[in-house]
Write a structure and sequence with these properties.
The protein is an alpha+beta fold. The chain has one domain: Thaumatin. It contains 6 helices and 13 strands. The longest helix is centred in the N-terminal third of the chain and has 15 residues, at 2-16.
Length: 213
Amino acid sequence: MFSSIFLLISILFTSTNAAIFDIRNNWPFIVSASAVPGGGRQLGRGETWSLKVPAGTAGAPIWPRTNCGLDWAGRARAKQVTAMAYGRPPNTLAEFALNQYQNLDFFDISLVDGFNVDMEFIPTSIGCTRGLRCAADINGQCPNELRAPGRCNNPCTVFKEDQYCCNLENCGPIDCRRFFKLRCPAAYSYPKDDPTSTITCPGGTNYRVLFCP
């Protein structure tokens, strides 16, 4: 009886406990790491920001802000340190929802808003081992029509047409979207890309988001 009560308490505690996200910058320049919820923090190379996120949080992104007021020496101007909104595309997003259906966490790396920095998104708790990684040379190989300074736009951002923004019934990795899907097949490259791009872990799992793994 006592063991059953203890097990129940453990399950309830795990399902309501906050998750820890360790956000680390391995990029050789300063990055303004941003998160909703959480705000933002300037990270030099090798620095980590530990963020506690409440159980039940959904629709939450973490992303690196680049080309936003940093000089060539990597010194951030004060006005750029604070995170704003959900970022200005193009940027690589780590997205997650905690303690959802059957008390599972859902997480992904999204290129739907484009790409700026390589990213790894992995669980760090015992019992969940599968993570995500997008470390292709997307900026260097970006098609001319999608190029932005130091970044690569998603075609929806540039063309703003139904066929590129997945507003049609049939939506898949076609045309310019295929460029992202071929280089980072486990990442979201277009809306409705759930079957290949969303991973689950038990609620209460902790995570690491690594910029430039």
